[in-house]
Specification:
361 residues, alpha+beta, Gyrase A, domain 2, six-stranded mixed beta sheet, five-stranded antiparallel beta sheet, 10 helices, 44% helix, rod-shaped
């Protein structure tokens, strides 16, 4: 029972959406409405007068002000009328002699129930059977009694409506709405949609909603899958970074103590600086004007003593060599025996040679 109720509610919701769409489209087109009246056997096309509008003279040099065109049977429709009809609502004003007017009095409190009241009394008010007519109504407060509504009911034969629609459709102007006296709507295309057309429209709206839902679900699933994949890659990269950090930093003192003698010896070999690499780094970093008189390498501590014309300028090249860190003078710089060179005493920390191999050119 529950699935049936859900299906019924869903269908009703789609029908409401469809009706709302039709009403919105008609209201949008009503902003550019064209009115058509039948006068002397010809159709007079009008629209609200706007600045800059020019009346179309179609064989009638003395058209009334505000007319857009006067169309005779079989005559071609002007291009401006065709463009206006394509984007605007077409309202046909039914001749007064085809409309019957009836009056009823209704209490003012019953204004919101007027559609039902008129529908229930249309058989009594109409000179024809109720299934043969279309009708509309307008209500105003009675001048003699403010508590009463003066309701005017406008009634026309459906056959007259159909004939007028056919005549206008034949000249290329499909009617959207037919009105009686004072623009009271008697017939509307939106209100007179056939069940088949309504069903087809509901199906199209339902299909569009279903397609949007499927596309949204697919996009959501793709986003979730991508996020999970990125999360997994991020975790894998993070694990690699931690492993690399452990390799660079080496084992801690506690973990080093847990290694067997062979592993500790291998680790000491890996982390011990190599004299050949240190000499290569010094030869590239020191200028030709400097030379060494003493070099001492103890574990990772390097001390060099020598002569140079500009001792302070040696610090930067040694730091930028990529093999030495914490480069500094460990004793004062003094002038040499010849007075032209200065004696320097520099101390630095040597990076393990496995790092040098990874970072070297």
């Amino acid at each position: 029972m529950a699935p049936i109720q859900i299906g019924t509610i869903l269908r009703r919701w789609i029908e409401v959406l469809t009706a709302t769409y039709f009403a919105w489209r008609e209201a949008l087109r009503a902003r550019h409405a064209l009115t058509i009246a039948c006068e002397n056997g010809r159709f007079v096309v009008r629209r609200p007068r706007q600045d800059g509008d020019n009346a179309i003279r179609h064989g009638q040099p003395n058209e009334p002000e505000g007319n857009l065109a006067v169309l005779a049977a079989g005559a071609p429709i002007p291009a401006e009328v065709t463009r206006a009809a394509r984007s605007g609502l077409i309202v046909f004003e039914l001749p007064a002699d085809l409309v019957v007017v009836r009056r009823i009095a209704v209490p003012a409190q019953a204004r919101e129930f007027l559609p039902g009241i008129v529908r229930n009394q249309i058989e009594r008010l109409s000179p024809w059977h109720a299934d043969q007519v279309v009708y509309g109504f307008a209500a105003d407060v009675d001048e003699a009694d403010a508590a009463t509504l003066d309701v005017r009911v406008f009634i026309a034969l459906r056959s007259d409506i159909d004939r007028a629609r056919a005549e206008l459709a034949a000249i290329g102007l499909p009617v959207d709405r037919i009105a009686g006296e004072k623009s009271v709507t008697l017939w509307s295309r939106v209100a007179d949609i056939s069940p088949e057309h309504l069903t087809h429209s509901v199906q199209r709206v339902g299909a569009s909603i279903a397609a949007a839902v499927v596309a949204s679900l697919a996009l959501s699933l793709w986003a979730i899958s991508s996020a999970a994949s990125l999360g997994g890659e991020s975790e894998e990269i993070e694990a690699r970074v931690r492993t690399l950090q452990r390799q660079i930093q080496g084992p801690s003192s506690q973990s080093l103590a847990s290694l067997n003698p062979n592993e500790r010896a291998w680790y000491a070999k890996e982390t011990a600086p190599t004299a050949a690499i240190v000499l290569e780094a010094l030869s590239r970093a020191l200028p030709d004007s400097a030379y060494l008189t003493e070099l001492r390498l103890e574990n990772t501590t390097l001390r060099i003593i020598g002569l140079a014309s500009d001792a302070p300028s040696l610090i930067a090249p040694l730091e930028h060599s990529g093999h030495l860190t914490d480069v500094h003078f460990f004793a004062p710089t003094t002038r040499g025996p010849d007075g032209a060179l200065f004696r320097f005493n520099i101390e630095a920390r040597v990076e393990p040679h496995f790092k040098i191999a990874e970072e070297g050119p």
